[in-house]
Specification:
Blueprint: H1 2-17, H2 25-43, H3 48-60
Helix pairs in contact: 1-2, 2-3
Length: 62
């Protein structure tokens, strides 16, 4: 459920924030795509130890 929710919410977040970004649009998109892939990986982890590693890696990019 969270992977699907993340997939639908990230394009909305990108479109809302796109007008406020004047420079570094490429880096903005790269950061969002990395964050999206880490959030999807965190919600799809079957192993409990990796389930704790991936949410912490999402916080690094913030």
């Amino acid at each position: 459920f969270f992977a699907v929710l993340t997939t639908f919410l990230i394009p909305i977040c990108i479109s809302v924030g796109w007008s406020s970004i004047k420079s570094y649009k490429k880096e903005y998109m790269i950061a969002f795509l990395i964050r999206e892939s880490l959030m999807i990986a965190a919600s799809c982890m079957p192993d409990l130890s990796l389930f704790h590693v991936f949410p912490e890696s999402v916080l690094i990019s913030m």
